[in-house]
Amino acid sequence: xxxxxxxxxxxxxxxxxxxxxxxxxxxxxxxxxxxxxxxxxxxxxxxxxxxxxxxxxxxxxxxxxxxxxxxxxxxxxxxxxxxxxxxxxxxxxxxxxxxxxxxxxxxxxxxxxxxxxxxxxxxxxxxxxxxxxxxxx
Amino acid sequence: xxxxxxxxxxxxxxxxxxxxxxxxxxxxxxxxxxxxxxxxxxxxxxxxxxxxxxxxxxxxxxxxxxxxxxxxxxxxxxxxxxxxxxxxxxxxxxxxxxxxxxxxxxxxxxxxxxxxxxxxxxxxxxxxxxxxxxxxxxxxxxxxxxxxxxxxxxxxxxxxxxxxxxxxxxxxxxxxxxxxxxxxxxxxxxxxxxxxxxxxxxxxxxxxxxxxxxxxxxxxxxxxxxxxxxxxxxxxxxxxxxxxxxxxxxxxxxxxxxxxxxxxxxxxxxxxxxxxxxxxxxxxxxxxxxxxxxxxxxxxxxxxxxxxxxxxxxxxxxxxxxxxxxxxxxxxxxxxxxxxxxxxxxxxxxxxxxxxxxxxxxxxxxxxxxxxxxxxxxxxxxxxxxxxxxxxxxxxxxxxxxxxxxxxxxxxxxxxxxxxxxxxxxxxxxxxxxxxxxxxxxxxxxxxxxxxxxxxxxxxxxxxxxxxxxxxxxxxxxxxx
Lengths: 137, 481
Prior knowledge:
The structure holds two protein chains of two kinds. Chain A is of the alpha+beta class. Chain A has a single domain (2-136), classed as Archease, Possible Chaperone, Chain: A, domain 1 (3-Layer(bab) Sandwich). Chain A is 25% helix and 42% strand. Chain A is built from two helices and eight strands, in the order E-E-H-E-H-E-E-E-E-E. In chain A, a hairpin with a 2-residue loop joins strand 7 and strand 8 (128-136). In chain A, helix 1 runs parallel beside helix 2. The longest helix of chain A is centred in the middle third of the chain and has 18 residues, at 57-74. Chain B is α+β, with helices and mostly antiparallel strands. Chain B has one domain: tRNA-splicing ligase RtcB (Alpha-Beta Complex). Chain B is built from 16 helices and 19 strands. Chain B has helices spanning 32-38, 43-50, 116-126, 142-151, 153-158, 164-168, 186-195, 217-222, 239-259, 277-312, 316-319, 392-397, 412-419, 424-430, 440-445, 454-463; strands at 7-10, 13-16, 26-29, 56-70, 72-81, 86-87, 99-104, 205-214, 230-236, 272-273, 322-328, 330-339, 342-351, 354-355, 374-377, 385-390, 401-402, 434-437, 467-480. In chain B, the strands form four sheets. In chain B, strands 7, 8, 9, 11, 15, 16, 18 and 19 form an eight-stranded mixed sheet that branches. A seven-stranded mixed sheet of chain B has the order 1-2-3-4-5-13-12, with helices on both faces. In chain B, strands 6-10 form a two-stranded antiparallel sheet. Chain A binds chain B through residues 5, 7-12, 55, 58-59, 62-63, 66, 69-70, 73-74, 76, 101, 107-111, 113-114, 116-120, 134, 136-137, and chain B through 41, 43, 67-71, 74, 93-95, 130-132, 187, 190-191, 194, 200-202, 240, 243-244, 246-247, 250-251, 254-255, 266-268, 270, 408-414, 438-442, 445, 481.
């Protein structure tokens, strides 16, 4: 399980890999928020339940990540803990944990507008799954 | 990396011949030198991809600030037939009606000498920038938000933000018709309510600058610009509301693509026939976001004026902070264009491109009938910006469109590596530019090396005849998210 950042001129591209689809979704969320802020400084003290739909795993992944951005924005919260509870098309249920943004404690490193579908394809590998995600920032 | 063959038409025009599933040719405006950089990423392939979309009219176009986007390239322009064509959220982007407005003034550099820092600090206080910030004196209820989405900058003026005369100098009068707030999701509305009247982060800014150079005296004076004059540039868009609308409708379009049997090379190009329920709904929701962005820039303009009045202790009349123009650079609009001698109503997508209508166009206000539409091209942080005007040639070749900015050459990640631990603020300060940013990180991502030199971009559109250079502006102070 892991992620790395690839070069993309206008935006940010993240490559994520994991042993299972659930872990791929969790790791993608972690990668997204580690771009936004230093996650070591985010205490997982408030929990939220998330439910999203998608017609396939790609759409579900984008919906999941954009849903997290939506909560980050309207609740002004940062999240550092992501647990997929149920993943069966077309649904995803998850629990996420984090805390409200505080300018004294946290720094916003890269504000992200949205997660895109550009060249998005979840691939099965020998060891599990991998995906490259392009973000609009 | 790119193996796509380009055919040189002249020094600034490169044709992508039609092949495979392309319905039309592609055309890139660039100099030979810029083309080398463009060929390094996938943006040429993206121009080709757009050329495969149903109902495309004329060529799939790319301006010289083209760079790799998602779906459409950034710097892309494509027009679609109203009857047979499609409309695509990916052809507009997430930041719907991200745009630029320019204010002129009666002030010269001398008039703000010794006051610059105070002005920038006060702007930083008065214009909310960065994550989660907003004006305490602004509370928007749902009902009012609907009015913002319906009326755009007109709503803002009704509420006392600015003057009625401002509206004349905004593209579409600051309100795109056909907006329907009922098509905007609760989530989008929620994001919008908290963010109206905020600058946002990333490359958005308010900049105090001055007119460094005039290229055309007559045009400059018709636009009210003179050498050493203080100007203010505002760059922002529809914020989270626009991002959410785009995301919501990409899902709708993903289904529509299947429903209407549209074949596409990239999912981010998903679209629907313009006349289909999905197509109409997207346009009506997109218009809401566009209007939100017009209102946003109008409100920020008002706070900029108040800030200048407060710091310089001068009357609005003495300051003369008048709107030169306000342009969109991420938008889809219905416009009438001549195609092979016949007038047709087309849906023109501009993603990272600016409308550049010629002198005499009926959509331009009286005072710009002779000059053509002012076009505002911001450069990167700490370099220069340009004021141009639209031309007849743009009308004939690019559906009245031109470039929108510098265009990135380094990824944000590379920019951070390049900048390392440098103090970008300190470097700019040595060049005489005072900057206040909500986040050090976004400042580093915007280092000048991350961008093409906007002068090169403007040179191409000027020499290709798509627009005409009027003036060059130099920054003095900047606030950023």
